[in-house]
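Quick note —
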Amino acid sequence: MKLATIKYENEEQPVLLLEGGAVLIKSLNDYASIGLPLSLYELVGLDAVSELKRTVSKFSESDWIALPKVPSEELDFVAPYRNPHYIFGVGMNYVEKAIDLQTKQIEDAPVCFMKPTSCLIGMNEMIELPNFSKVVTAEGELCLVIGKSCHEVSPEEALSYVSGYTTSLDLTAKDIHAQNPRFVQMSKVFKTFFSFGPQIQLLEGTESLSELVVQSVQNGEVRAANIVGNMMYTPAFIVSYISQFVTLQPGDLIMTGTPGSFELSHGDIAGCQITGLLSLENRVI
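Predicted structure written out below.
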């Protein structure tokens, strides 16, 4: 089951994606006489996800036919939401990437950083290259969506607090980071340096993420690719690790590392592709 936010009737509205189109959550509420949140930020909370799943599991074929739909050609995707409490990232989480950066990984601790919400953009919004940096790179990454508040959770239970996953782009001012490893945080925080969406794939509780292929894509060309199973730190471990430091909240986002990066130039289209999801794309200006 996939969720997204679209621009429709001059509003950003959450939708349930179907083959050939989508159903507005507002329409679903009216049809089923329920009260699902009308923002995707609230809708990804596991309580709301559970209500959504319970509702649609009772639908018959005639119900799906009767529901008003937005055709695929009218789906104008935007960022799923714009106000997460936390945006975390993990660096050098694939062996090949760590070797590429000539960095020795700390054995039991992933490299973590944070992004402010002022970085956040969505599908088809423009990436702006800053004047302060001359070398900016982009990386496609699997991004986890937290669905329930959690603190000090174990790796074994961590994914039960995750509502789903999506595509994301992490941008870095590489020349600033290269000056000193301590500058990693500041190299990540420029305007438009984080994009995610457009689709959020909800977890069903039984699937494995390990076979998902994550790709960094530049102008339609795959520049780097790997499977989640080749991560040094699993998605479950990452959620658990970060939860030792902060209380994660519903809607928080965690990028899990990239198979590889590419340098951006004006006019490029930076992209991320993940198995089963619509590609995320942003043009560089």
